């Protein structure tokens, strides 16, 4: 492989890059000796857009990628794609890698600014992928009849913007369910179902049965497993609505009205689901799963009030009081302690428990986690690592607040009302003024932010005024009292002179 002039090699690569029927991909990287190109790495490929075929250039700098699409242009007319390629060839890159449908070309620039070109023929001609938007791997397609009937997707088969979070939650749940059932069946912990004896799945606290219908649809139509699902909820209205939806979709499902602790099923289920069961309802669901000796359990705890209330009522012994002294830390500690106890109790009953993340917090109010069970009786139980609880406003009245709002309020009050020794006297709160004031003489809403006033500085004469002397002076300055007294004294002296 002998060296050749750099310009000749780059012109040959230019011809290949500008041929949209031949180019698969081109990559430029590295830098020539003593030179610094504008980009660290550049990738080129052709994509088919609605406006026609374009050259897509993805340039990488130190922090991010910048993607641009250039039209090819008509023959004999100025071409934005040709100009973009010429600009990149002028950059002092040290390496060019050009892939075509039949060959691969490697160009390396030496210290003497000569080109070392290595060409390799492909074993067979490859097909070029020109797609721009790649279809994402979905457990259930957006146009699935179940999603349309549940109101997650529109009649045209597109997920509604307001239901994107619910759709992501369903997708993540189905991924977790699919992995759990696959592993349980491979290890022989979950029985093989048949048409005469389908797999029995129960959803405790199903509500509107979003996940119930999604699980049945995925397991039957995608996995090809015979499944019968049963939903349990305390509301008669939910049972009637879910039964109507199931009959419209032709889904093999039944719904029972009753509490989780007292619901009666004709046969023990193989798989138990308990997603977002509030507070101790999750514990009731886990207790029923153990009572039924279910092979697979998926639980996503929602709220953790019971242990948190006990921690508030009971004094915490030292040195653990540091965990429960502050409300935000006490709530998080209660969440972790509750799920740790649940996982430990399941292990005592022969389950192998894994705590894993279910859905990210920005997609759902609760962030459930999942767990796996024991070799003797395999299952996955879910323990929540983070959840959004609710709490009442100070005084116990008014609507419930999400815990994130409550914690932010506590945090804000703690910062604004903190007590700092040596400032403003012992035990005096430092409350900086945050309200912006209009600049004197300004028009059109001009604002000036005042810096917090240092209230711990004593001036001459404060000590003589006795306790609170400096506070009286500050109060007069705030209210403008000193200016009124000064003006009143000036008017009085002027009257006596007359």
Short account of what is shown:
This protein is of the alpha+beta class and 498 residues long. It has helices spanning 6-17, 80-90, 145-149, 164-186, 210-222, 236-249, 281-292, 306-313, 321-324, 327-348, 403-416, 469-479, 481-497; strands spanning 4-5, 23-29, 41-49, 52-60, 65-71, 95-100, 103-109, 114-121, 199-204, 227-233, 253-257, 271-275, 296-300, 356-357, 369-370, 390-391, 401-402, 437-438, 447-448.
Offer a few descriptive terms:
alpha+beta; 8-stranded antiparallel beta sheet; 19 strands; Rossmann fold
Mean pLDDT: 75
Q: Please state the second-level CATH architecture of the largest domain.
A: 3-Layer(aba) Sandwich
Spatial gap, N to C terminus: 111 Å
Shape: elongated
What percent of residues are in strands?
15-25%
Structural class by helix and strand composition: alpha+beta
CATH class of the largest domain: Alpha Beta
Reported by name, the CATH topology of the largest domain is Rossmann fold
Low-confidence parts: 360-465, 490-498
Percentage of helical residues?
Answer: 25-40%
- In the residues, how many domains can be counted? 2
Q: Write down the Rg.
A: 35 Å
Q: How do the strands line up in the largest sheet?
A: 1-8-7-6-2-3-4-5
In this structure, how is the largest beta sheet organized?
Answer: 8 strands, antiparallel
Structure annotation, total helices = 13
DSSP, total strands: 19
């Amino acid at each position: 492989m002998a060296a050749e002039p750099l310009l000749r090699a780059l012109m040959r690569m230019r011809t290949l890059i500008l041929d949209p029927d031949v180019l698969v991909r081109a990559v430029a990287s590295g830098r020539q000796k003593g030179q610094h190109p504008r980009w660290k790495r550049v990738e080129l490929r052709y994509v088919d857009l609605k406006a026609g075929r374009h050259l897509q250039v993805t340039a990488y700098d130190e922090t991010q990628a910048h993607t641009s699409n250039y039209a090819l242009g008509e023959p004999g007319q100025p071409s934005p794609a040709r100009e973009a390629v010429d600009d990149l060839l002028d950059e002092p890159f040290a390496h060019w890698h050009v892939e075509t449908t039949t060959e691969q070309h490697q160009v390396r620039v030496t210290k003497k600014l000569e080109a070392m070109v290595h060409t390799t023929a492909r074993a067979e001609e490859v097909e070029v992928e020109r797609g721009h938007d790649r279809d994402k791997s979905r457990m259930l397609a957006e146009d699935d009849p179940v999603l349309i009937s549940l109101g997650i997707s529109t009649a045209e088969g597109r997920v509604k913007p307001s239901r994107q979070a619910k759709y992501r939650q369903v997708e993540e749940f189905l991924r977790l369910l699919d992995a759990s059932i696959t592993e349980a069946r491979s290890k022989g912990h979950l029985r093989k179902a048949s048409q005469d004896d389908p797999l029995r799945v129960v959803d405790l606290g199903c509500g509107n049965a979003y996940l119930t219908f999604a699980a049945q649809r995925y397991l039957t139509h995608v996995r090809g497993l015979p499944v019968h699902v049963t939903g349990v909820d305390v509301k008669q209205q939910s049972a009637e609505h879910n039964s109507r939806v199931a009959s419209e979709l032709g889904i093999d499902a039944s719904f029972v009205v009753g509490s989780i602790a007292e619901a009666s099923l004709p046969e023990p289920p193989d798989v138990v689901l308990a997603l977002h069961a509030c507070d101790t309802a999750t514990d009731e669901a886990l207790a029923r799963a153990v009572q039924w000796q279910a092979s697979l359990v998926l639980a996503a705890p929602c709220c953790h009030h019971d242990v948190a209330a006990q921690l508030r009522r009971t004094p915490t012994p030292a040195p653990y009081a540091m965990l429960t002294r502050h409300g935000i830390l006490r709530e998080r500690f209660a969440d972790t302690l509750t799920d740790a106890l649940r996982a430990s109790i399941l292990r005592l009953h022969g389950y192998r428990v894994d705590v894993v993340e279910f859905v990210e917090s920005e997609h759902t109010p609760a962030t459930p986690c999942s767990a796996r069970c024991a070799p003797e009786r395999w299952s996955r139980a879910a323990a929540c690592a983070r959840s959004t609880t609710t709490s009442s406003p100070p005084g116990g009245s008014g609507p419930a607040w999400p815990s994130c709002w409550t914690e932010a309020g506590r945090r804000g009050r703690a910062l604004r009302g903190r007590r700092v020794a040596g400032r403003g006297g012992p035990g005096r709160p430092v409350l900086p003024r945050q309200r912006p004031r209009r600049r004197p003489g300004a028009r059109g809403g001009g604002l000036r932010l005042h810096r917090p006033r240092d209230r711990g500085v004593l001036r001459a004469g404060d000590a003589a005024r006795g306790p609170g002397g400096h506070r009286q002076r500050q109060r007069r300055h705030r209210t403008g009292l000193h200016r009124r007294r000064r003006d009143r004294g000036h008017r009085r002296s002027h009257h006596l002179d007359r």
